[in-house]
Design brief:
Elements (H helix, E strand, L loop, with lengths): L4 H12 L4 H24 L6 H18 L1 H11 L11 H4 L2 H17 L2 H12 L3 H24 L3 H7 L5 H12 L3 H9 L2 H9 L5 H19 L4
Helix pairs in contact: 1-13, 2-3, 2-4, 2-13, 4-13, 6-8, 6-10, 7-8, 12-13
Length: 233
């Protein structure tokens, strides 16, 4: 049974009812760590002329954040299954084969980057040689790459919950399983995500404080979508 966005949101509200304190706490801790980690490259290398060192540190911090991002999802997934959840689950990925999530995120990032290269190359060459037709083609290729990157993101949107449920599974198999589950469900997932735009805008207008409610609610709804696809609900 394919549920509507409203039905999935209702399930999310039921899972979070009277239990918002833990997700909010997890959200605050995660946001705080992300802010500190993102400041690390600039703090260690205030002189951006040392670009190689800066890029290396930025790369490492991105990997750390990819592992950290699993924690809040782990807590919410447990809660969606009736558990109270534990704050210690913020470190779930650090204790369960973190290389799986790192490699999968690296592959997704690589794919999302590579598809832009043809358009960028054509656009740059056309700009150098002042070829109007080439600039048009390059722009179209970049536009196609944007659409392609959205499709890639949708195909692999379920990698994190799949990893939480199967930490021993290889990165390639996680990507493959996510793609298989999303086949025929990309549009539903995309529409579900779009439905949260008004809530996110209101949360931002409310001095970002509303994000402490909006982010867990959004993530929980997307996890209910995942649980539906794997046959749990």
């Amino acid at each position: 049974m394919k549920r509507t966005s409203s039905q999935l949101k209702q399930l999310a509200r039921e899972s979070l009812a009277h239990r918002f304190s833990l997700p909010v706490m997890a959200c605050v801790i995660t946001f705080g760590i992300i802010m500190l980690v993102n400041m690390l490259p600039a703090t260690l290398f205030p002189d951006t002329g040392n670009s190689i060192s800066y890029l290396v540190i930025s790369f490492i911090t991105d990997l750390l954040l990819s592992i950290l991002s699993v924690g809040p999802v782990t807590i919410l997934l447990d809660m969606s299954r009736g558990s109270d959840g534990q704050l210690s689950d913020l470190l779930y990925a650090f204790r369960h084969q973190p290389d799986r999530i790192i490699v999968s995120q690296l592959i997704i990032s690589l794919l999302s980057t590579v598809i832009f290269l043809p358009g960028i190359l054509v656009f740059m060459l056309s700009s150098i040689f002042y070829t109007a037709f080439g600039i048009i083609i390059g722009s179209l290729l970049i536009f196609a790459a944007v659409i392609g990157s959205v499709v890639i993101r949708l195909d692999f949107a379920l990698v994190t919950p799949l990893y939480i449920d199967n930490p021993q599974t290889s990165a390639i198999d996680l990507l493959r399983e996510s793609r298989d589950l999303m086949r025929g469900n990309r549009l539903r997932y995309f529409v579900l995500e779009l439905s949260f735009i008004p809530i996110m805008l209101l949360a931002v207008v409310a001095c970002f404080v509303g994000l402490l409610w909006a982010v867990p609610y959004t993530q929980m709804t997307l996890l209910e979508f995942y649980r539906e696809l794997v046959g749990e609900i």
